[in-house]
Design a protein that fits this description.
single chain, 2 domains, about 60% helix, elongated
């Protein structure tokens, strides 16, 4: 996993004095409401919000664009958009999904600008699914050299398989398998029906299984 991307407060130009209330003691819901209270987010409250959720932005961007050297710039742009638009969020309880949507949309905006094929997703660790539809975990206690080589080959094939998925499939896979979001959350973020989300995820998994069948059998 990549190191956390540091986003400095100077990237979001707020000029309000810090409030006397200890914002680090506020629950997430109240913290978001505090950021929405004025014409612009309260500086201390927004800084705390950034501290709590920066790792989520880092994670989303890392798995979407592992090879992009300017992910830190993208992360800063995410928080600038959050700062400018947080008053538009009608349900603070849905902030996490809203934040992921901003990061995902920003990535695809940038991807379209660059107009070139990327390798948008990287998985460094096995994933076990609660619903049992697909298990990417390779069993083993202390793998030897051959097993380590097989594992590296497997994940290289996995990265290539995911990179070959259509964008809509890649997005749902990131939100489901990396972010661990519920189908309903993904439907809201992507703006499609629940049935479409389930269909995309099922088709994406089917394509990955077909691409990796030799490794899965072994």
């Amino acid at each position: 996993m990549s190191q956390s991307i540091t986003v400095s407060w100077s990237t979001v130009d707020a000029k309000y004095p810090e409030a006397s209330v200890q914002v680090d003691k506020l629950p997430n819901h109240d913290l978001i409401l505090r950021c929405q209270a004025g014409l612009r987010p309260d500086r201390a409250a927004f800084a705390e919000l950034l501290r709590r959720y920066q790792s989520q932005v880092d994670r989303v961007l890392y798995h979407l664009a592992p090879d992009w050297p300017d992910r830190a710039d993208l992360a800063q742009e995410v928080w600038i958009r959050v700062y400018r638009n947080i008053n538009r969020l009608q349900e603070p309880a849905k902030f996490r999904g809203w934040l992921s949507r901003i990061a995902t949309n920003l990535f695809y905006d940038e991807l379209r600008k660059r107009k070139r094929v990327m390798s948008p997703l990287s998985l460094d660790a096995p994933r076990s699914l609660e619903d049992g539809e697909m298990d990417w975990e390779i069993a083993g206690d202390t793998p030897g050299p051959e097993e380590e080589l097989t594992t590296r080959e497997f994940y290289e094939q996995l990265r290539e398989a995911i990179a070959d998925l259509p964008e809509v499939f890649r997005t749902t896979i990131v939100l489901r398998e990396i972010e661990g979001m519920a189908y309903e959350e993904i439907a809201e973020i992507t703006g499609v029906s629940l049935g479409t989300v389930k269909s995309r995820i099922a088709r994406a998994r089917s394509r990955l299984q077909a691409h990796l069948q030799n490794y899965l059998d072994s």
